Amino acid sequence: MHLILIGSEYSGTTTIGHAISEWAGSVMGGNHGFHDHWKIPHLNHPAFETPEEGKKGWAEWAAGRAEDPTRLGYTPEEQDLLLALTPRQKEGFQRYHMDYHISPVFYSYPDHNVVGMHYDEAVYAGPYYGYGGDGEYADRKRMVHHIDERILGMAPDSVLILLKCSPDVIRRRMKENPHKNAVLQEKDVELVLKRFEEEYEKSIIKNKLTIDTSTATVAECLAEFVEKFEEHITDADRTRILVQSAKKAGRWL
User: Fold this and answer.
1) Which of 3, 35, 65, 174 is buried most, with the most CB atoms less than 10 Å from its CB?
2) Is the pLDDT of residue 82 over 90?
3) The whole model's pTM is what?
């Protein structure tokens, strides 16, 4: 399963990504997590020491009893150091960060899923990070096409998922659950939503689907994903689903 999940901050990318991971683990077996660490300064995996600690941490967050693990990969001091980097330093870090995550080793596994990555960079880098704007060195909008070409060369079955959300709901979520060191600014909500839709529409990835998270529950969004994803499921993933079903029913050797 190769998914790229995109959308404005506060649209639910982490929440829906986690729900998809849980669903995939249940019906296919194995580990189906997302690389969800692309918004400066949240550029590292959650700081869990063991798989058991990670499972507990994600469950506590999903139940509303803990902070979002994707924003806890670096300590507050480390986040301050990242924010203090110059635009040139941030650009280099993110460029190599992305290049690493599209290396062949990741696509040698049956699953490689990311949240945002180069699409986040195309939307946020110029306005918020001070690099990669139109016509500048390492123009992030142009980079999307090249990275997608590399991904499709290794994983032609990749699926691009856009989470849509109304501006009013985004602003309400910003007030009700503000992210520490958030990227999105309230004045830019409409622009950022538009930019993600533009990048989705012009993407060369042909397997696409959208989910509107404005009023739907997490369960409803997941059900919509499962329904729309069905036409994109590979034969290998269908086989894994059948094997996992047989194991659960006690019909596997």
Assistant:
1) 3
2) yes
3) 0.95
